[in-house]
DNA sequence: CGGAAGATCCACT
DNA sequence: GTGGATCTTCCGA
């Protein structure tokens, strides 16, 4: 991890402090809303980039038809999901993009939270270079999507299984979002999962500019339209 | 061993 | 809004 020394970020030491190991040892749908506002801290080759998580989705393991572990499926790819909570599960999707998950729960539960969007907090120039985009990105261009944020933070399968407590990829305390600012809705891109596609397991900071796609504001239980 | 589909993104119409 | 990129993973034969 890069040393402190940046003069411009305003990030405090407590915001960078790793979340406790016990934080992860719960169901994914309990952990997911508490991940909103947390800092994802990527350190590599003396550089640092930090993103604030603003959108996530919970995947509940064997009983969740949308999960890679649906029905208790256990394969070489998904083995990381079955580990004890507190590690990263990174996989390649569509042969092109990587997705980052936070593994939750005790061993063999295969619970995970997909990180769907971050707001850049530090290291913006590095993220822009990683994304290969122009110097003045619009909101969402850097981290507004699961594949985008992995590219921005240089996350690929070499980080599959790494601890989130210390090292190249850390989940820090950050600036948690107040519960009244959270919204929830159905998960994206899981139409193959039948009824489970409608489960309200997507969580986001309401009306946040860096979200991958909008969620209508409303009471829990009201969803946005859109298939 | 073959084929189909995928927790996505981007360019184009 | 639609379709193409691109390749690993997984399941069935």
Summary, kept brief:
This protein is α+β, with helices and mostly antiparallel strands. The chain contains four helices and eight strands, in the order ααβββββααβββ.
Mind sketching the topology for me?
Elements: H1 13-16, H2 28-35, E1 39-44, E2 47-59, E3 88-93, E4 97-104, E5 111-122, H3 124-131, H4 146-152, E6 169-172, E7 182-185, E8 202-205
Antiparallel strand pairs: 1-2, 1-6, 2-5, 2-8, 3-4, 4-5, 7-8
The protein binds a DNA duplex (13 and 13 nucleotides) through strand 3, strand 4 and helix 4.
What pattern of helices and strands is seen along the backbone? HHEEEEEHHEEE
Proportion of residues in extended strands: 25-35%
Terminal Cα span: 41 Å
Alpha-carbon Rg, integer: 16 Å
What are its keywords?
single chain; 8-stranded antiparallel beta sheet; 3-methyladenine DNA Glycosylase, Chain A; disordered C terminus; 227 residues; 12% helix; alpha+beta; 4 helices; DNA-binding
Describe the protein.
With 227 residues, the chain is an alpha+beta fold. It has one domain (15-205): 3-methyladenine DNA Glycosylase, Chain A, CATH 3.10.300. The chain is built from four helices and eight strands. Mean pLDDT is 92; it is low at 2-7 and 219-227. The chain binds a DNA duplex (13 and 13 nucleotides) through strand 3, strand 4 and helix 4.
